[in-house]
TrEMBL record:
Protein name (record): DUF4913 domain-containing protein
Lineage of the species this protein comes from: Bacteria, Bacillati, Actinomycetota, Actinomycetes, Kitasatosporales
Annotated Polar residues bias: 39-48, 164-186
One matching Pfam family: DUF4913
Region (Disordered): 34-55, 149-186
C-alpha cells in the first residue's frame, strides 16, 4: 500500500485496462453464444409428431460426433469451461478434489462436462429454467458431476492434486471384449 494517491494518468490507465478486460470477456461471451447458436442450427431437425406442434431440435451429444463436428463442439464446450465453469464454479484443487487442466484428454470428463453444459444451456434460459433454473442446475447437475469427476477415485485421480501442480496422466479405461470373442473362446 502507498499513501500517494494515484494520478489522473494512472487512473486513466487502470480504467483502460479494465475496459480492455471487459471487452475481452464480452467478446468471449459473444463467441460462446455464436458457437452455441451455430451448433444448435446444425443439429436442428425439427421433428413433427403429427399433431402439428414441432418438438425442439435434439441437443448435439458430443459422443455421437466425430471429426470436425466433434472438434467444433469441444471448442464451444472448452470456452464455457474456461470462462464460466472454472472461474465461477470450480473449488480449489486438493488431494480430495483433483482436477486436470487438460480435461479434454479424458473422455469421461468430456462426456460429463458436455452433459453439464447442455443442462446449463437449458436451465439458464428463462423460458425453460425460470427463476429457479440456475439453482436447480447447481443442485441437480453441477454437484453430482463434480462429485464424480473430482472424486479422489475419479478420472483426474492421477492428475493435479495440489494447487499449482499441472500433472496430467490419463487413467487406463476398463476394456471389454467384443461379444463375438466370448462365444468362440473357452
Ligand atoms: Zn489429466
Amino acid at each position: 500500500m502507498t499513501d500517494t494517491p494515484p494520478t489522473a494518468e494512472q487512473l486513466a490507465e487502470d480504467v483502460a485496462d479494465l475496459t480492455a478486460t471487459v471487452n475481452g470477456l464480452t467478446a468471449q461471451l459473444e463467441e460462446t453464444q455464436r458457437l452455441a447458436e451455430s451448433l444448435q442450427g446444425q443439429g436442428a431437425s425439427p421433428v413433427s409428431n403429427g399433431g402439428g406442434a414441432e418438438q425442439p431440435a435434439a441437443p448435439p451429444l458430443i459422443l455421437k460426433l466425430s471429426g470436425e463436428e466433434y472438434d467444433q463442439e469441444l471448442a464451444a464446450l472448452a470456452i464455457w469451461v474456461e470462462y464460466v465453469l472454472a472461474p465461477a464454479f470450480l473449488n480449489e484443487i486438493s488431494s480430495s478434489a483433483p482436477w486436470c487442466e487438460r480435461w479434454w484428454e479424458h473422455l469421461p470428463a468430456v462426456a460429463r462436462l458436455h452433459a453439464l453444459w447442455l443442462a446449463w444451456q437449458e436451465l439458464t434460459t428463462p423460458e425453460a429454467g425460470g427463476y429457479t433454473g440456475p439453482s436447480v442446475w447447481a443442485r441437480d447437475h453441477l454437484r453430482p458431476t463434480m462429485d464424480e469427476l473430482r472424486s479422489p477415485t475419479g478420472p483426474f485421480a492421477a492428475c493435479a492434486t495440489k494447487p499449482g501442480s499441472a500433472n496430467h496422466s490419463p487413467l487406463r479405461q476398463p476394456t471389454v471384449q467384443p461379444l463375438s470373442q466370448s462365444s468362440t473362446s473357452g
